[in-house]
Each structure stands twice: as structure tokens, then as C-alpha cells.
Amino acid sequence: MTKPIITAFDWVPDFAKGQVRDFRVRWALEEVGQPYEVRYLSQGEQKGPEHRARQPFGQVPTYEEDGLTLFESGAIVHHIATKWPGLMPADASGQALATEWMFAALNTVEPPISELAYVDIFEADKPWAKPRRPSVEERISSRLKDVAKRLGDQQWFAGDFLAGDLLMVSVLRIIEDDPLLAEHPTLVAYVKRGTDRPAFRRAIDAQMAGFTGSPPPGFAEWEAKLKAAACN
Ligand SMILES: N[C@@H](CCC(=O)N[C@@H](CS)C(=O)NCC(=O)O)C(=O)O
User: Fold this and answer.
1) Same domain (yes/no): 59, 99
2) Total domains present in the chain
3) Is the CB–ligand 1 distance for residue 72 below 6 Å?
4) pLDDT per residue over 76-134, tens digit each?
5) Cα of 110 to ligand 1 centre, how many Å?
6) Which of 113, 124, 153, 176 has the smallest CB count inside 10 Å?
């Protein structure tokens, strides 16, 4: 088999470094010990026809392997976890339980956390951004409470470190420095266990090393506008 090829950006703003979703795929590949190659896209290239043929929404990451092309980081991580040993148990019930936590991470926990990025960054200049933050925080808090309760004093959600943990840690680390997560020391410790894994470190280093490109035209003006809004 030839090495799988993933897509990633050659430049993102500082706040996104280490968080772009190809990271989750890199981490999964590192966990199972599968080398891969990266096709880098400059900002804007993701919306062109060539990339849209791989990814209908014009986003990264994608994954290509021997004629198979996939998009959606969750689906790609699931594919990696079922193809190589390391992130999924061998039995069907164990697989279902690991998959359950993949969906919980992406479908139930990540959506309110993603809203924070709109309030704090992407739409920070909108008049409703600041007044909206408390309700976003409330939704995140409620989810974190339930996640912490279910984790209890377990190390991981379904026995060993599995694909569900890989995605849950990826999602929770988005708010790693936010007081919302600090309210749950067991979740802080859970994220630390995940991010202390050697495969995590290799994946972060690889993503960071790939940022060799330049910002798209107009980025400096956009950033200045947001900074001005943040000071109001
Ligand atoms: N649900 C998708 C989301 C992918 C996504 O949001 N990708 C972002 C980077 S993290 C992107 O490519 N944004 C650029 C754009 O939308 O133009 C996945 O998990 O693969």
C-alpha cells in the first residue's frame, strides 16, 4: 500500500495553529504507526474545483489511499481506527462503544465549543457577539458537567485510549486555557493524559512544521478590524 495522503493548509492564523482538523487525522495515523504524506493547500485553494472534488465543502482535511478518497475528520479517524490496530477494540460491541464516544465528541460536545470561536474571533465585531457569550458558556458548562460525571475516575471513556478519546481530547483541548474547563479538574487531567501521549506530540510538531506559507491578501485588515472590536 502506498502511504495515505492527507490535505492541510500551508498557513493559518496563529489562533488556529495546532487546531486545524487535519491534526486529528495526523494524531490517529501517529497512534497506529502509519506514515503518511501531506498535500499542502494555500489559503483559498480549498475552494477551487480540484479540492472540491475531494471535499464538497471546500475544507481540510481529506484523505486518499489506494483509490479511496474521504472527507470529514471524524469519518477519516474512524476509517484509520478500523483499518489498523490501536484505536478500536477487535470485537463489534467494543467498536460500537468506541464509536459512540466519537459521535459524542463531534456531535454533542464540539458544537457549543465551536460557537465560542464565532463569538470570540470570527464574528467578534458583530454587536451581538459579547451579549451572546454567557449563553454559549452556559451550554458548554452543561455539557462539560455531564462529560465529567460520566468519565468519573476512569482514565478513558471505554477502557483503553481509543478513537473516541482521541476526538474527545481534540475537542476539549480547544478550551484548554478557558476557565470553563478548569472548573473540572478531572477533565483537565484527562486532556493532559491525551496530550502527553508521544503520538500527540509528533502530530502537533508535524502540523506546525507544515506552516510555511503566507497569509492571503486582506488578512491583515481583517485581523485589525477584529482587534479593534475586541477593544470596544
Ligand atoms: N466537519 C469538518 C470540518 C472541517 C473544517 O472545519 N475545516 C476547516 C479547518 S479546521 C477549513 O478547512 N476551513 C476553511 C474553509 O472553510 O474555507 C471536518 O471535521 O473535517
Assistant:
1) no
2) 2
3) yes
4) 999 999 999 999 999 999 999 999 999 999 999 999 999 999 999 999 999 999 999 99
5) 13
6) 153
